[in-house]
Amino acid sequence: METKKIDYRAIIIVALAVAAVVVLFALRQKKSSVQSFESAGLEVGRPAPDFKLPDLDGKVASLSDYRDKVVLVNIWATWCPPCVDEMPSLEKLYQKLKSENFQILAVSIDAAGADTVAPFMIKNNLTFPALVDPQGTTRNIFKTTGVPESFIINRQGLLIKKIIGPLDWASPEVLEFFRQLLQNSTP
Predict the structure, then answer these.
(1) Is 8 helix (H, G, I), strand (E, B) or coil?
(2) Is 82 helix (H, G, I), strand (E, B) or coil?
(3) pLDDT score, position 37
(4) 3-state SS, residue 39
(5) Contact residues for 116 (Cβ-Cβ < 8 A; gap 6+)
(6) Which CATH topology does 52-184 take?
(7) HSE of 38, CA atoms in CB hemisphere, 13 A
(8) Rounded Cα–Cα distance for residues 59 and 49 (Å)
(9) Per-residue model confidence as pLDDT tens digits over 32-51
(10) What are the domain boundaries of the chain?
(11) What span, in angstroms and rounded, lies between the C-alpha atoms of 21 and 172?
(12) Who contacts 180 (Cβ-Cβ below 8 Å, separation ≥6)?
């Protein structure tokens, strides 16, 4: 009687190839669902995600508290040189527009919270509201890649623009942009 010799190497190779195809397919499916989840909800024209954070006095504020205002959410840190550089221009913008249904929410991600941010605000004569987020909650919900990053939200709570990096907020072009936005977005 002739015995058939089983080629275990061929079986193992085929099994590994099938397993590799299954793993690659699963990873591709997972990656596409993660990408679609990450982009959902943070697109221009969609509602900005709400958040609640304490201000420098410990009073909790949320983005939704400022509905009916144009809001500039600026995510920053005192240890970030570009963030520090843009603060005076944010103050100028705030002073020019604060009486026109406009609000800046400067969200600091400094780990020490108000203990670091309050002296910084005083030293730099900054009067716009600063919120503290030492856990980085807003970085996660706004899906930031660094600091500073800013988000412009209209009176209806829709994200109008995302700015990555520092900006001269006191430039005539920026001021005109906000004035147009304030005129064109009715409460």
Answers:
(1) helix
(2) helix
(3) 30
(4) helix
(5) 78, 108, 110
(6) Glutaredoxin (3.40.30)
(7) 11
(8) 20
(9) 333 323 334 479 999 999 99
(10) 1-40, 52-184
(11) 57
(12) none
